[in-house]
Structures are given as C-alpha cells and as structure tokens.
Amino acid sequence: MPIQRELLTIDAAGESLTGLALILAPEATARFLLGAEPNVAGVMLGRVGGVALMAIGITCWGARNDPGSPAG
Length: 72
Fold this sequence. Notes:
By secondary structure, this protein is mainly alpha-helical. It is 78% helix and 0% strand. It has three helices and no strands.
C-alpha cells in the first residue's frame, strides 16, 4: 500500500522533528505550541515527552517498510 507508506513517512518526520524540538528547546517549543511559558517541571516533562515522540517517530519509520507488521 503506497499511501500507507507515505503516511507513515510523513508521521515519522513530524513526530521526530517535534520530539527533537522538545528535547533541544522545550521552552521555545512549548511557547510556540501552547502559547504559555513552562515552569521547571514543564521543561522536564517537555523533554520526557520529546523522547517519547522520538520513539514514536522511529517506530513509524521502521513500520513503513513492513506493511503487515502490527506497528503498521
């Protein structure tokens, strides 16, 4: 299914870029996405969320090559 491969590629790129932005600059990313300035706990949670988004992006990237997999 070529459309599924394209969707997983787009999703992998979006999730990975958002995760990377949250890991590297959580304050600026939160300000851009939510319109609010995070406190110290929010910065830590943003970085943890960034790692989780990177994991989802990596999973989507791998699943695009195997359409019969449970991840696909």
